[in-house]
Specification:
472 residues, alpha/beta, N-utilizing Substance Protein B Homolog, Chain A, 12 strands, 14% strand, globular, binds S-adenosylmethionine, RNA-binding, S-adenosyl-L-methionine, methyltransferase activity, MeTrfase_RsmB-F_NOP2_dom
Length: 472
């Protein structure tokens, strides 16, 4: 490489007498490199890179769209690039490959005029890789530009009739195993799913998620939030306000923690758990894997009128610290502890309600984490499912007879959801509740009894919740 560019080194927008590289595209490149080379998370690194590059408004939005889209579409873009490069892609320098991906993304998905997409990308290649790399990038992108998106789909995707999983994997740019897992989960939700349903879900994963605020009960109201510009009421949750444009960090309530940034799917999980009927006392609540504290903060508010005390636990000190921050100004009784939920510092049967929002693969929130589909592996599922079983056993031991455990994940994978719960039910001593009547405001909740929310159906993150009442 001509230059070693860490994602923080900037601004280097000139080399010799050449014209400047477009700062938005350079920032997108920096985000890609940080994700690919340093294993950064795009949603964390992008705002940092954009701020350091002093990009605002449309330029900042273009950088995010280009970087996120390129990360999501990597599978498809690589299939196209492989058809245009006369050696295996693995032999192309990673930074040059990222430049090629950015160029192909603009040509095929962003409607950037071809001369601009090629010209600007070649300029970027010259900056990051020197003259010979820029000629290579120019030649490859000209080949990409010979076909439009539909033609490329015909060329690189397996036939939908004979290999529907492989077809969707390429066309919607997801690993094969994830396409299959999502299809299986959708199929079990309503008895069956067509490949078109699955494609709708995969399409939703490739779109940006909107920002939703939560007016935490006891700390503010939805009506207060609706006074703010660019807001309207949420679709399902009585505490939700959608923010269309504008930065949540500029809202005073968000800065103080009275208002949270929280997808409606997560809000509905906490609300359903709080609404489940239980006999007897209802004052001891546990959130067993609480970091960073979004659901804990909502539960604390929901528990207020019942005089409930919330114990929020996380295994890592840092994550427990984030929970403490989220709960900091919350009225009522709450306590945050760093502990391993599989062997928590409490006596068996101590709690009336327990939330176990288990660590999971996050396959329901792929739209928010553009690179994560390429990082996750089927081995992660097996490892997490084992931990989820241990945590659920511990949650069921922590709740009293008659109390309720909510088992939630932001993954719809069957091995992390219904299979974990089915094992717990099979061991006896628990009754599975139908979650759907607890959320009458939400349409289309499938066959039940568990709650499953989908980006393409409900517009929320993909969330799962089973409610288990302990019977002995
Ligand atoms: C899905 S997140 C919880 C999200 C949270 N409920 C919210 O809404 O903000 C899972 C959390 O479980 C924590 N965790 C993982 N293993 C754990 C364990 N053995 N005991 C307690 N917490 C654990 C992780 O650190 C992570 O913060």
């Amino acid at each position: 490489m001509g230059e070693d560019r860490g994602h923080h080194s900037r601004p280097v927008q000139w080399r010799g007498d050449r014209r400047p590289t477009d700062p938005s595209r350079l920032a997108a490149y920096d985000i890609l490199r940080a994700v690919q080379a340093d294993e950064a998370y795009a949603n964390l690194v992008a705002p940092q890179v954009i701020a350091e590059a002093e990009l605002h408004g449309r330029d900042a939005a273009f950088t995010t769209t280009l970087a996120y889209g390129t990360l999501r579409r990597r599978g498809f873009l690589d299939a196209v690039l492989a058809a245009c490069v006369d050696r295996p892609l693995a032999e192309v320098d990673e930074p040059v490959l990222d430049v090629l991906r950015l160029g192909a993304q603009q040509l095929l998905f962003l409607r950037t005029p071809p001369h601009a997409a090629v010209g600007e990308t070649v300029q970027l290649a010259r900056l990051v890789g020197g003259e010979s790399r820029s000629r290579f990038v120019n030649a490859v992108l000209r080949k990409v530009g010979r076909h439009d998106l539909d033609e490329w789909v015909e060329i690189v995707a397996p036939d939908a009739g004979t290999d529907p999983v492989g077809h969707l994997a390429v066309v919607q740019s997801h690993p094969r195993w994830i396409v299959q897992a999502l299809h299986d989960s959708l199929s079990s939700w309503r008895g069956s799913a067509s490949w078109a349903d699955t494609e709708d879900l995969l399409t939703a994963d490739n779109e940006n998620a909107s920002v939703t605020l939560v007016a935490r009960p006891g700390r503010g109201t939805v009506d207060d939030l609706l006074e703010l510009p660019h807001t309207h009421a949420g679709r399902w949750s009585p505490y939700a306000v959608a923010l269309e444009g504008g930065a949540p960090g500029e809202i005073a309530g968000v800065r103080s923690g009275d208002v949270g940034v929280q997808d409606e799917g997560s809000q509905l999980v906490a609300i359903a758990l709080a609404r489940a009927e239980i006999d007897g006392p209802d004052t001891a609540w546990l959130d067993m894997a609480a970091g960073p504290g979004g659901k804990a903060a909502l539960l604390a508010g929901l528990g207020l009128e019942r005089g409930a005390t919330l114990l929020a636990v996380d295994r890592t000190h840092h994550r427990a610290g984030l929970v403490a921050q989220a709960l900091g100004r919350a009225p009522g009784h709450h306590l945050v502890v760093t502990a391993d939920g599989t062997q928590g510092p409490w006596r068996p049967g101590s709690f009336d309600r327990v939330l176990l929002d288990a660590p999971c693969t996050g396959l329901g929130v792929l739209r928010r984490r553009p690179e994560s589909r390429w990082r996750r592996t089927p081995e992660d599922v097996a490892e997490l499912a084992a931990l989820q079983r241990r945590l659920l056993a511990s949650a069921l031991a922590a709740v009293r007879v008659g109390g309720v455990v909510g088992y939630a994940t932001c993954s719809p994978h069957l091995a992390e959801t219904t299979e974990v719960v089915a094992d717990a039910v099979a061991r006896g001593g628990v009754e599975r509740l139908d979650v759907r009547p607890l959320l009458p405001e939400v349409d289309d909740l499938g066959d039940g009894p568990d709650l499953r929310l989908w980006p393409h159906v409900h517009g929320t993150d993909g969330m799962y919740l089973a409610l288990l009442r302990r019977t002995d």
